[in-house]
Amino acid sequence: MLSVPALPYAFQFDPAHTALIVIDMQRDFIEPGGFGASLGNQVARLAPSVPVVAELLGLCRRHKLLIVHTREAHRPDMADCPPAKRARGNPAVQIGDNGPMGRILVSGEPGCEIVAAVAPLVDEIVLDKPGKGAFYATALGEILRIKGIRQLIFAGVTTEVCVQTSMREANDRGYDCLLIEDATESYFPEFKAATLEMIRAQGGIVGWTAPLQALASAFQAATQESHA
User: Fold this and answer.
1) Of these residues, 81, 129, 132, 192, which one is catalytic?
2) Does the CA dihedral 167-64-125-117 come out positive or negative?
3) pLDDT (tens place) for every residue of the chain, 228 residues total
4) Is 132 a residue of the active site?
5) Catalytic residue among 24, 28, 132, 177
6) Using CA atoms, how far apart are residues 36 and 39, in angstroms rounded to an integer?
7) Cα-based torsion angle of the residue sequence 126, 64, 143, 197 in order, rounded to the nearest 10 degrees
8) Exposure letters 214-226 (e unless 16+ CB within 10 A, then b)
9) Where do the H-state alpha helices sit in 98-188?
10) Which of 81, 112, 162, 177 is catalytic?
11) What is the per-residue DSSP string for 66-103?
12) 129 is an active site residue
C-alpha cells in the first residue's frame, strides 16, 4: 500500500487495484469556440489543468495503473439527451447544434474529442457518458469490477460538475477516491475551492484531495523502498 499526504488525512492505495479516471478533458469545454465558451464561460481558466493532467497521466502510465478517460457525449440522434438538458439556461447554441468544432457534445464530432495534450493511448479506456456522472448509463462500474479496482484517482473538468458528480457516484459504490487538486479546474475559481472543501469535509465524506506532487512523492518513496 502507498500512502499519499492528503486531506483530511493520508490516502492509502494499492496501485494494482487503483484506476485513474480523467473526466471530460474535451475541446468543447477547454478550447475557445466550444460549448463552454458559448455559455459565456472564460475557458482560459481551465487551461492550467491541461499540463498537470498530462503529467499525471505520464506518472500513472509509468506505474501501470488502469486509465479511463470520459467524454460527455451524446448520440447523433440525440435520443440520450433529455430536452430539458438541451434547453437549460436558454443557451444561444444548444447541445447537438452546429458549432465551430462540429455538433456540440455529439460523439464523433471534433469538439467532442479530448484535447491533444492529454489524448488517450490506444490501449486506454474511453467512455462516452450522456450525463454528468461517469457511472450513469456507462459500463464504468462493470469495467472496474472486472479489473478488481477498489480505489480511484480523479482529474479533469469541471471540478464542481462532472468531476464531483462522478466522485459522489463512486463514493456511493464503495470506492475510496482521491482528487488531484491541480489536475482539475472550474470556470469559477470559488466553485473549485468550495468543492475541494466539500469533498474532504467531515473526515472525507466524499473522498480525499492532494496535489500531484504528493502523489508523485508517494510513488517515488515506494520505488526507493523497493530498491533498498
Assistant:
1) 129
2) positive
3) 999 999 999 999 999 999 999 999 999 999 998 899 988 999 999 999 999 999 999 999 999 999 999 999 999 999 999 999 999 888 888 999 999 899 999 999 999 999 999 999 999 999 999 999 999 999 999 999 999 999 999 999 999 999 999 999 999 999 999 999 999 999 999 999 999 999 999 999 999 999 999 999 999 998 877 676
4) no
5) 24
6) 5
7) -80
8) bbebbbeeeeeee
9) 140-147, 164-172
10) 162
11) EEEEEEE-B-TT-TTS-HHHHHTT--SS-TTSEEBTEE
12) yes
The C-alpha cell at 188 is 469559477
185-to-54, 97, 103 alpha-carbon distances in Å: 14, 26, 24
Q: By C-alpha distance, which of 119, 113, 117 is closest to 48?
A: 117
24 an active-site residue? yes
Distance CA 186, CA 163 (A): 10
Q: Which residue has the cell 523502498?
A: 225
Reported residue count of the chain is 228
List Cβ neighbours of 106 (8 Å cut-off, separation of 6 or more). Answer: 73, 74, 75, 76, 78, 95, 96, 112
